[in-house]
Specification:
about 250 residues; alpha/beta; Quinone Oxidoreductase, Chain A, domain 1; six-stranded parallel sheet; two-stranded parallel ribbon; 10 helices; globular
Length: about 250
């Protein structure tokens, strides 16, 4: 299993430095859901986010593949997790998977609840899956020396105001999570970090990938429609015919 450019193809070319042996307990479908998602999570929670045991992680749009993986990894690290979602059903399911507190919302209106949950301190690390529409609220919800990871913008809002006073007074760190401009060696380094810090927990079953649904490759339009319906929880996987024989 590994990370490579391109999508929706029967064949792909992978840098050997990003190839990882599949743990025995995993199916091909489970393995396919892991590398890109959990390598991103390693970048934002461990390499840049420095999430520690006992700290609070807030994940906006937590039901996405990256959001669920972030929750699982944070719990493995001993952190506490707050998640936002517009679906009460998804939040209920995520609580059975380890999420500590769920906030039902799709808007930037969660700061007060986060402060209440964390005893007035705020979240130590926030993962912004949503985009510019919740960016300012994320800044407000950060604790002293808090870190804000921007990993997506599904809302299409690419600009937001920054509270310079909060950034200054609370000694905040704002960072992006992307591989677009990284060199092959930098990508390989992040893969090695994932193998060292997260893969053992996947191999021994402490982290189990959450698959929403598996589609055959020729059902790609249906899989894409399911993803765009925003009803999924975790990863949607395409199965290429005879993948298990190779």
């Amino acid at each position: 299993m590994g990370r490579c450019p391109g999508a929706f193809a029967e064949y792909a070319l992978m840098d050997a430095r990003e190839a990882v042996a599949i743990p025995e307990r995993l199916s091909f479908e489970e393995a396919a859901s892991i590398p890109l998602t959990f390598m991103v999570v390693h970048d934002m929670l461990i390499a840049q986010g420095r999430l520690a045991a006992g700290e609070w992680l807030l994940v906006t749009g937590i039901s996405s593949g990256v959001g669920v993986a972030a929750m699982q990894t944070a719990k493995m690290l001993g952190a506490k997790v707050i998640g936002t979602s517009g679906s009460e059903e998804k939040l209920a399911k995520l609580k059975t998977l380890g999420m500590d507190v769920g906030i039902r919302t799709r808007s930037g209106d969660f700061c007060d609840q986060v402060m209440q949950i964390t005893g007035g301190k705020g979240a130590n690390l926030i993962v912004n899956n949503v985009g510019g529409s919740v960016f300012a609220e994320c800044v407000r919800a950060l604790a002293f020396q808090g870190r804000l990871a921007t990993v997506g913008y599904v809302d299409g809002v690419l600009k937001a105001e920054i509270d310079i006073e909060a950034l200054h007074a609370k000694r905040l760190s704002l960072f992006g999570v992307s591989n677009k401009l990284r060199s092959p060696e930098q990508r390989a380094e992040s893969a090695r970090g994932f193998v060292a810090d997260i893969l053992p927990a996947i191999a021994d079953g402490r982290i189990r990938p959450v698959l929403d649904r598996v589609y055959d490759f020729d059902a790609l339009p249906a899989a894409k429609a399911h993803m765009e319906s925003n009803t999924h929880l975790g990863k949607i996987v395409l199965r290429v015919a005879d993948a298990g024989k190779h």
